[in-house]
Amino acid sequence: MGRQEAIARSIALAITSTNGNSANKRSQNLLATLLAFFSALFSLYQLALRKIRPADFANLRRNHWDVGDDDYADSFQPGEGAKKEEALSSIGDMGFSGSTFYSTADQKYLVKSVPRHSEYSFFRDDLLTPYVQYMASHPRTLIVRICDFLCLSGASLGRALGLAPSHHIVMENIMYGREQTKKRGSADWEYWDLKPTSYFYPERDIANGALTSEATLSQLADEFHGKIMLSQQQADDFFSNLEEDTKLLAEHNAVDYSLFLVRIKVPRQATDLVPSSTALDMVPIDPPSVPPSPPSWRTGVESPDGKHIFRAAILDFFWAKHKLQPIFMTVLIKLWNLLIFKHGPMSITTTPDEYRDRFLKMCRGIVEVKVAGAGNSDA
Predict the structure, then answer these.
(1) What are 272-312's pLDDT values in tens digits?
(2) Would you state the pLDDT for residue 353?
(3) What do you get for the CA distance between the two ends of the chain, in Å?
(4) What is the pLDDT of residues 139-161, one digit of tens each?
(5) Quick check: helix, strand or coil at residue 195?
(6) Which of 65, 213, 252, 292 has the fewest CB neighbours in a 10 Å radius?
(7) Which is nearest to 114 in space by CA: 127, 133, 101, 130?
(8) DSSP of 203-230, one letter per residue?
(9) What pLDDT does 243 receive?
């Protein structure tokens, strides 16, 4: 079993296993317990994982997102005749966070590794309680829905050698439905991982990127050169959610988060086939995207001209200014600006309020409001 398959297997086991009778039976057999201990201790890739705050995430899934326990577990089960590790498929890097991603076979969930101590400790110790409370009280939030938080349950050689990540988050897949529409040929999907690009990025700004590989440059923030065409009501809803969501993140010292934007182009002939249909009828909207009832920024918001569907979510909010690694990076950038060349702060070394201001400005800059009965106007 390869590295990716072993990690996938450990994630699937953590989601689908219970702490009931099977654990009791193991405890009754000393030899089995010892074998399990040494197997986990010396495993290089398949780490023994446990859930952090499982009751809180179960409450969100059941009572706020309408995701049943059986349906959730089924997403992490392999197909008939398949092996446990085949319940998840590796999709490599989907952004510039340095994390690896897995997708469930039904495409409803993504599993993202959180490799840095400063990131997973911030979410676990500082943000988790306000996150759970906020997500329960703000059903239309753009902050991505995290359905489980997994961590290493004991000592492991693989973790000590840095061969496998010790923490993972399970989150909704904003791209859910792409494979179904691709098979039907009824829609074209594009996506961008957006951050303010006015900050200092050493990979890009030192020697105009000549000292950095193309692979590294490709991991930097995307740029969206188009516009999100929205009605005034849609734009007001979008900006209202962004204001509230980023306020929560700023209050807890988070910076460097991104807006994951999806644009689905719907061919006109797709809706022409069924005169009573709309563009939204072309896109699946199963859980975990609902509730609230569609349309929403999770299921898709249709542009006033009916040509596009937009989805959006706030991701990667694990970098906090008060953690040791961010403090160290802030000192380094300040010394760079003082002694070598003044570039200004990076997105990971600026203040939470300043990052929020630039982030909201970026979001407003990509929206164009379609005023009914009039020409277009920028938001």
Answers:
(1) 444 445 666 777 777 677 888 889 999 999 999 989 999 99
(2) 97
(3) 52
(4) 999 999 999 999 987 555 545 55
(5) coil
(6) 213
(7) 101
(8) HHHGGGGTTS-HHHHTTSPB---S-EEE
(9) 98
CA neighbor of 370 nearest in space, from 284, 307, 287, 286: 307
Q: What pairs with residue 193 in β-bridges?
A: 260
**Which tokens sit at 14?**
């953590």
Tokens of 135: 């997500």
Residues 6+ apart with CB under 8 A from 79: 86, 105
| CA separation for the pair 260, 257 (Å, rounded) | 10
In whole angstroms, how far apart are CA 48 and each of 40, 84, 108, 151, 286? 6, 14, 24, 8, 31
**Structural domains of the chain sorted by starting position, each given as residue range(s) with its CATH number in brackets:** 3-172 (3.30.800.10), 178-378 (no CATH)
Instruction: Give me the chain's average pLDDT, please.
Output: 81
Distance CA 300, CA 296 (A): 6
pTM: 0.84
CA 16 from centre of chain: 21
Sequence-distant (6+) residues with CB within 8 A of 207 are none
Residue 206 has pLDDT above 60, yes or no: yes
